[in-house]
Amino acid sequence: MHQINLDLSLEEISKIEGGAGLDLTIRNGQVEKLNFKITEYKRFYTQAIRGKAALAAPTLLARICGTCSNAHILAAIKAVENAFKITPSPQTLILRRLVVNGLIIRDHALHLYIFVLPDLFQKDSLLDFDDQDPRQHQLLHDAFAVKDAGNNLSILTGGRSVHAPYPTVGGFLKFPDPEKQKEIIAKLTAVRPAVLNLIDTFLKAPLNQTQHIPYLALRGENYSFLAGQIVSTDGINIPSEDYRGQLNRVDLPYSHASAYTYKKGFYMTGALARLNLNKASLNPQTQKDAAQALQKFPSDNLYHNNLAQAIEILNAIDDSIAILSSTSFNPEPPVKPAVISGTGFGVIEAPRGILYHRLTIEDNVVKDAEILVPTGQNQLNIENDLKILVNRKLQQHTGKKHSGSGRMDSPGVELKQELTHDMEVLIRAYDPCMSCASHFLKINWN
Amino acid sequence: MAKLTVGWFTFTCCEDSTIIFTELLNQHWQDWTKKIDFKYAKTLRRSVDLGPMDVAFVEGAISSVKQSQKLKQIRSLAKILVAIGSCAITGQPSAQRNEFNQTQKAEIKTILERFDYADKVQKLSDLVAVDHSVPGCPMDEQKFLSLINKLIHAPN
């Protein structure tokens, strides 16, 4: 039998959010060690937030991550409001839904067009797409138009797509300009065909790797990212504030970020989990126009995470058009706190999955915090999927060798290049966010 | 006119300015790709060995000797180095551990040692010469646009 021994170290994985690396050791044709390393240096937000004014916590905690910042703001606001017994107005809830929609469109589009599409076209960068090729030309132009629509929706409702200045504890500080509302409806409507094309592109993508694991997501009305209970494909149904108790933290000595298990095993959170659990509550127009793609769900194919993200962009567009077309927003003051001490939970769906903020507040001051981010939760599953991928590639490689169809004159170089490429593609399919994952420290060192 | 060779680098931060940069591409990509070669930008393409460049945009603060060495390498290869955003210019908020009390310091000590963190987080100008700065958290879009247009037309 052909025995492959190989050592591979990737110091800097490109086209992802933040810094990650990987160490792989293969001995006798099997993966002996595969460490997926989150290499972002910590900024210790859960320490730094202690002693800060609770009302300022969302603004500081947003700095955990630029790309997911508006998700962190909304989760932290929800946690403070929960502690302070604030019930936000119906208008506030609608505006927050629009802020999330802007984030989903902008963030998923960045990931799918800029990070993932080059893999499907064997290009290094979207900017290398051939402007003379009709399909590549269309996708290149679509990329920036779709991102722009999401960015403008975020600016309209949140004031900015990064570290939004309008959302605050109890409500909003500014409200959408009605004239701008019409402009945004037109922009969102204009990019719908592009998003349908994107869904079709990922529906036809050939990559497939399945793993039967639990999928966890928030479930609420209208495919909510902000309200509801935590559900899973293995039957859990709990209030979101009880979510942390379902997970066990795992210390990985090679990663700056903590990892988590659910029922002592791997699990996944994110777009694939949401689609697997909640597709029936998507916007009716999305369900109609993405019907063929939706037949793929529930799915155990990890690469369908990208198809799920493309469908979620369409859902965010359709939901936003429906809201903006039927809603007039009026200035209203933020709701005042009923109390100024307590423990509050803010659990929402960020673009990459379940985001959990727990804040303990005394006399308006944060005393303690715990924050769980999606990438930390998916970290072990990413690593396990990488092992499955590499072992599968090794079997294929050995098969080629035995059949004589593979080029084995320099198998080390060839195999390293192939594995490097395929592992990066798999990691990008998860859309991990390292800035989020390495924000904090909550480790018991032994 | 030769294209401006540009690198976009990120150290310890939340990468908010990288996101703003990718959103600015929505409006400017067609113009910029004619005038700028985004040669080193791991958000946009695979990382390659560093070489000479006209402009290095650097986001984030410096947390370790390894990061410090990389920054100095970038400085040696770039004609112009631009500090992007609050963490690069002031260190904050990424440098918040510099102000921790003894209890907080004790909590983070083990991880600082395990991953070779530097004693203090530093801003870029503590370590290298900075030619321009674009302040903000995230960076001020208009100031960035003004600077990049100036550099496109007069890179030196």
UniProtKB/TrEMBL annotation, chain A:
Keyword Magnesium: yes
Cofactor(s) essential for the protein: Fe cation; Ni(2+)
Keyword Metal-binding applies: yes
Amino-acid positions noted as binding Ni(2+) in the UniProt annotation, renumbered to this chain: C65, C68, C433
Residues that hold Mg(2+) according to the record: I371, H439
One Pfam family of this chain: NiFeSe_Hases
Gene3D superfamilies for this protein: Cytochrome-c3 Hydrogenase, chain B (1.10.645.10)
A single MF term (Gene Ontology): nickel cation binding
Family assignment from sequence similarity: Belongs to the [NiFe]/[NiFeSe] hydrogenase large subunit family.
Record's protein name: Nickel-dependent hydrogenase large subunit
Species of origin: Candidatus Beckwithbacteria bacterium GW2011_GWB1_47_15
Species lineage: Bacteria, Candidatus Beckwithiibacteriota
UniProtKB/TrEMBL annotation, chain B:
Pfam families xrefs: Oxidored_q6 (PF01058)
Ranges of residues in domain NADH:ubiquinone oxidoreductase-like 20kDa subunit: 23-150
Keyword presence, Oxidoreductase: yes
PANTHER family on file: COENZYME F420-REDUCING HYDROGENASE, GAMMA SUBUNIT, HYDROGENASE SMALL SUBUNIT
Protein name as annotated: NADH ubiquinone oxidoreductase 20 kDa subunit
Organism per entry: Candidatus Beckwithbacteria bacterium GW2011_GWB1_47_15
Superkingdom of source: Bacteria
GO molecular function: iron-sulfur cluster binding; oxidoreductase activity
UniProtKB keywords: Oxidoreductase, Ubiquinone
